[in-house]
Amino acid sequence: MLTKSAPLRLTALRISTPPAMTILHTHRNASTTTSSSSRTNPTSTAASPQPNQKLEWDTFLQLRKQRRRYNLISSIFTSALGTTAGISYLANKEIDPTQMIMGMDPIILFGLATVSCGALGWLAGPVLGSSAFSVVKRRVMGQINEREREFLQHIKKNRVDPSFQSFSNPVPDYYGEKIGSIKQYKQWLKDQRAYNRKSKNFL
Fold it and tell me: Is the keyword Mitochondrion in the record (predicted)?
């Protein structure tokens, strides 16, 4: 009876071992997947763009166009503010319409002073707009300034001689302020060549 029961115990042991092995196998697979995922995480973070990378030309020109909008909006704001301040100041002044001021009618003089306040506000607008743009884009201002220097070198190299301008042949965007994309830059180069052709024909 003992010899017959031994094989049964062995078979029972053989049958009961595979579940434990499968548990160990799944545990090893889980550990390998977690280790592989932990290894892949640094590569994903390394793929993020570096802050010192150069800006693409399209990106730089879009930012340059955006800065012009900042300057325009701030100029409108400061011009309105200057005009309002001038009106509020001059409205409290007592004037005698019958007496001349600096040889001019007081109403005309006050009108010119109000317009001057608005003009001064308009000229002060780009300073405020550029400062606001620098604060908003402070992380990439170094890259913008670097591209700006390169861009101005291209403009100086390819722009026309303004001494040959005329009423029928005006200078096409001498400082390149209207350039906001690569397509507009190519059009700007075409306009410079067209200006040179016209100036040579007149000579």
Answer: yes
